[in-house]
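Appendix B: a complete holo record

For completeness, this appendix reproduces one full record from the ligand-bound portion of the collection. The bound molecule is 2-acetamido-2-deoxy-beta-D-glucopyranose. The inputs are the chain sequence and the ligand SMILES; the output is the full three-dimensional arrangement of the complex, encoded as structure tokens. No fields have been trimmed.
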Amino acid sequence: MPAAATHSSRLLAIVAIFFSSYILGIYSAARASSQQVQQVQQLEAPLASQNDSLDLQAGTNSSLARSDSRHPRWFPFYTIGRFSNDICTGNNLLLGTCVISGECSDNSGVGAGSCSTITSQAICCIYQRTCGASTSYNNTYFYNSNYPAPYAGGGRCSIVVTPPDSSICQLRVDFLALSLAPPTGDGLCSTDALTITGGASQVPSICGENSGQHVYVDFNGVSPITISVATSAGYTFNRQWQLQIRMLGCSSATLAPSGCLQYYMPTSGTFASFNYVSAASSALNSIGVQGTRQLANTRYGICIRKAAGICSITYRQVGSDTYSFTLTNDVGAVDPALLATSSVQSQDCTTDYIVIPAPTQGGVSLASDRFCGLGLVSTTTSAKPFVVYTVTDGNEDMDISNRGFYLSYSQNACPIL
Ligand SMILES: *[C@@H]1O[C@H](CO)[C@@H](O)[C@H](O)[C@H]1NC(C)=O
Ligand SMILES: *[C@@H]1O[C@H](CO)[C@@H](O)[C@H](O)[C@H]1NC(C)=O
Ligand SMILES: *[C@@H]1O[C@H](CO)[C@@H](O)[C@H](O)[C@H]1NC(C)=O
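The structure of the chain with 2-acetamido-2-deoxy-beta-D-glucopyranose bound, as generated:
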């Protein structure tokens, strides 16, 4: 073979390798970005090393630029290590997203440990925000300035949550910590209030002690959701909050059914009214007697996910706490031994009450589904979905020293026929 021919066929081979790998690179880049997978170029370069004459020494750290999936330039000469932008648990135990460290710092995230075995450049990025922020990141944490140090009060502190795209339908907001000034003795959040606006559903104004509580809010498809904490500097109190804001996809298995402000997924557990604490309120109400802890003017559903093979659900007062169902009437006027018994349970309810649809007690069906008074005996229902509806009105005058409710639930397997 003539020397010239050998030379040109070698050239052809080089060009062919170059182009085929380049096209491969573009292809995988496009695939990667459509799958929202991030790519990292590794130092090994088998395509290049297959032919030393190409002598393309790839692999400097500068090529580890973020957002590589959108810039496939350097692709042909590297093998591609991939990791997906999964949810990760940071070494601070908060939830984050696994991203390239540069992307994390560019988006004002905080790296909390590595999250990929493919590359040390991938870190668990935690998004933490305080007053005046906006976010589109899943699992953003919203807290008072200087958290966990308390905030003395004054002004309004808000975060605006915009879904990144139309695949997000709902927010779950977990009150990891939420301690605000208590409501008045009439159950009004007039000193401090957490409000959540802009969603498709109404969230009551919330104040007092609510760590461990949560709410679900649907996006309305048009506006962002604003979470806002308003506090009064004139009232001395150690406020503190840290809320976890979780975005749920429209087809997520953990989406709360529409209309449920709260949603419990375990087979058994407990739930309580907002600001529930066993101790009485120290505030007086408008007629000068010891006020209620219950928040006034609420109407919402507390839903429980029915587990497989379950036919009914039973609600009980949390036994260790005799005040765990004190919704109407004067707690102090009743012999404490009678609290939580059938003698102080009422179904004649027009002001503050809970609704348990199609209830039975001791195997007997009850005519009314409303419960109020100062006691609730074990109540079972087969009505589905499992939901307890709660109502409070705006007049708490006669609800002296009430706490609200703190109930346990357990789901009952279907009978074997
Ligand atoms: C590498 O280049 C040589 C010419 O230097 C060529 O003959 C050979 O086919 C190439 N090898 C590969 C694997 O493409
Ligand atoms: C690449 O980065 C690693 C740490 O990330 C460092 O140890 C190494 O020296 C860097 N190499 C070059 C060529 O910059
Ligand atoms: C957001 O994070 C939660 C975990 O807190 C996860 O269950 C959920 O699927 C994530 N949402 C999206 C849209 O990825």
